[in-house]
């Protein structure tokens, strides 16, 4: 495994807009330097002016306020270490195949985000009694292929999630200013939810007293279980329990002897309670060893297993995680036509020679 970040590069999925994934199999640490954090964009990068240093909070509030960047950094700060996973992570693995960015396993990353709790700002403005949702609008905008109209990227949160103390307006990543390509100067960070909720380049926060129906809320980031109709559709929100076998690599050829099988696991609600591993295509399962960091509410955990093998041949390795809500990765992911939330048991095939 690489021990030097300079050896690693993002894996390109598209250039316009720029979408690149993390080389997830080779991470030498449990959080990422900026140059290896996956990039997900719906449009080209925004052109920002000094106005981006101000954050308006308007709508169904008692006192609309324009916060300066200086105001925010002088408020009590809050830091959360969070997994951010694109809702389309592992889309490439769906069967039948679906359209969209063909992410493999690296549309997720983890790091420390520092900022101000959104709850703190909403307490200053004061919410009206009929407030139901909080809409975050980014500076990024463009045309959609399915609608002849220009849209800003906007997403809403229910009031309860917006008021959670760990939902923050971040201004720093790993103790440095947020890099431009990841949302500088301000980014919403929503732990436990897929990363579409963590709006970058925040332009304004608007409180509303009705349901938000923007295209990135009501068309995209919706589970559509049916190929030809919208029947049974429901919104993408919390991360599903998931895992990745980082080493060995799929289709890798190994010698007989002792090998370390290792990977990561994460979930939306709760924490990872166990990771099970199979080296015989799911016929039998054994418990992996979990390296559990202190208070790892929103982090992935590292797991490993020492495997000694003397018989040559092909082997299918499988990993499945279970969380504290007793949710376990299924043998097959729930197919949906936009390809969100893939979380089937992770599988790699290796050969022993």
TrEMBL record:
Concerning Gene3D superfamilies, the annotation shows:
2.60.40.650, Oxidoreductase, molybdopterin-binding domain
Every Oxidoreductase molybdopterin-binding domain range? 42-214
Under InterPro entries, the record lists:
Ig_E-set, MoCF_OxRdtse_dimer, Mopterin_OxRdtase_euk, OxRdtase_Mopterin-bd_dom, OxRdtase_Mopterin-bd_sf
**Ranges for the Moybdenum cofactor oxidoreductase dimerisation domain?**
240-351
Tell me the cofactors it needs.
Answer: Mo-molybdopterin
The record's annotation in SUPFAM superfamilies points to:
E set domains, Oxidoreductase molybdopterin-binding domain
Q: Is Oxidoreductase one of the keywords?
A: yes
Q: Which positions carry the signal peptide feature in this UniProt record?
A: none
Keywords attached to this entry: Metal-binding, Molybdenum, Oxidoreductase
One Pfam short name:
Oxidored_molyb
Return the PANTHER family for the record. Answer: SULFITE OXIDASE, MITOCHONDRIAL, SULFITE REDUCTASE
This chain's protein is named Sulfite oxidase
**What's the source species for this entry?**
Virgibacillus tibetensis
């Amino acid at each position: 495994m690489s021990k030097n970040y300079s050896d690693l590069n993002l894996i390109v999925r598209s250039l316009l807009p720029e979408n690149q994934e993390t080389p997830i199999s080779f991470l030498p640490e449990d959080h990422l330097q900026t140059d290896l954090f996956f990039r997900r964009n719906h449009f080209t990068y925004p052109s920002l002016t000094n106005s981006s240093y101000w954050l308006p909070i308007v709508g169904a509030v008692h006192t609309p306020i324009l916060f300066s960047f200086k105001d925010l950094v002088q408020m009590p700060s809050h830091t959360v270490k969070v997994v951010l996973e694109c809702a389309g992570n592992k889309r490439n693995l769906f069967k039948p195949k679906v359209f969209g960015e063909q992410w493999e396993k690296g549309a997720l990353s983890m790091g420390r985000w520092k900022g101000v709790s959104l709850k703190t700002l909403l307490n200053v403005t004061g919410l009206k009694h009929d407030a139901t949702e909080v809409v975050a609008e980014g500076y990024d905008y463009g045309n959609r292929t399915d609608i002849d109209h220009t849209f800003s990227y906007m997403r809403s949160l229910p009031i309860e999630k917006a008021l959670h103390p760990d939902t923050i307006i971040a201004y720093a990543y790993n103790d440095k200013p947020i890099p431009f390509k990841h949302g500088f100067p301000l980014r919403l960070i929503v732990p436990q939810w897929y990363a579409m909720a963590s709006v970058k380049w925040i332009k304004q926060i608007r409180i509303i007293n009705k349901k938000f129906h923007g295209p990135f809320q009501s068309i995209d980031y919706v589970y559509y279980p049916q190929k030809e109709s919208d029947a049974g559709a429901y919104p993408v929100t919390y991360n599903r329990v998931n895992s990745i076998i980082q080493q060995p690599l799929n289709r890798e050829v190994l010698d007989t002897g002792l090998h370390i099988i290792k990977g990561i696991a994460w979930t939306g609600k709760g924490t990872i309670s166990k990771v099970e591993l199979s080296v015989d295509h799911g016929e039998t399962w054994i418990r992996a060893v979990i390296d559990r960091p202190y208070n790892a509410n929103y982090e992935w955990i590292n797991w490993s297993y020492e495997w000694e093998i003397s018989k040559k041949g092909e082997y299918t390795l499988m990993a499945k995680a279970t969380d504290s809500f007793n949710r376990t990765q299924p043998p097959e992911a729930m197919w949906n036509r936009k390809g969100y939330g893939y979380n089937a048991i992770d599988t790699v095939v290796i050969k022993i020679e």
